[in-house]
Automatic annotation (TrEMBL):
SUPFAM superfamilies for the chain: FMN-dependent nitroreductase-like
Domain of life: Bacteria
Organism: Paenibacillus germinis
Ranges for domain Nitroreductase: 25-81, 82-164
Protein name, UniProt field: Nitroreductase family protein
Gene3D superfamilies, A to Z: NADH Oxidase (3.40.109.10)
Similarity field: Belongs to the nitroreductase family.
Length: 200
């Protein structure tokens, strides 16, 4: 099902097996415009995340969304300076968290796995809607918890910048050479047959 790809994607990403092109065209640029994301388009991303699978259908993921200047300023306070340099242009920031407990109060060992799946759904739908996303791990989780009043039973995973793609030239020079779709390991490095380390 893989069809022709944009030139910048095709030069860096070639699948060994036929897949939907959405998996190749979704990548993580850093250059954003300040164009507003309308509410209906934005909510479609979280609608996609809503339908992600989860263990026992617990749906542990939650998203804290910052759209106003005041809300985004709260996020800037706990995002590392290197990420702030480019993410401050993004019109939407989102913090991904997940509930670590089951309804009976026990530990949910799958909460992070499930939240990651929801983020993946969100990222693919953003790409379908003509948006870009960039997930960041470079932020202070303790500061985020305090600033956003996040209860202890929620784990904090990533900040996601969401918006429309801007020109590469708008980035600081140190980011410009990195503004390309990343490649991936060979499939043979990721698959084992029967036991760990065994060739498939």
């Amino acid at each position: 099902m893989t069809t022709s790809l944009p030139a910048e994607v095709e030069s860096h990403r070639q699948p060994d097996h036929e897949i939907n092109p959405q998996f190749l065209t979704r990548w993580s640029p850093r250059s954003f415009t300040d164009q507003e994301v309308t509410e209906d388009v934005l909510l479609s991303l979280f609608e996609a995340a809503r339908w992600a699978p989860s263990s026992s259908n617990l749906q542990p993921w939650r998203f804290i969304i910052a759209r106003t200047p005041e809300q985004r300023a709260k996020f800037y306070n706990f995002i590392m300076p290197g990420n702030r340099e480019w993410c401050e242009k993004a019109p939407v920031l989102t913090l991904v968290i997940s509930h670590t407990k089951t309804p009976k109060g026990g530990d949910n060992p799958s909460h992070a796995f499930d939240a990651g799946t929801a983020w993946g759904y969100l990222a693919l739908e953003a790409n379908n809607q003509g948006l870009i996303t960039h997930a960041m791990g470079g932020f202070d989780r303790n500061q985020a918890r305090e600033a956003l009043q996040i209860p202890e039973e929620y784990d904090i995973h990533a900040v996601i910048a969401i918006g429309y793609r801007g020109p590469v030239s708008a980035l600081d020079e140190k980011f410009q050479e990195r503004e390309i779709p990343s490649s991936r390991r060979e499939l043979s490095e990721l698959l084992f047959g029967g036991d760990f380390g065994q060739t498939l």
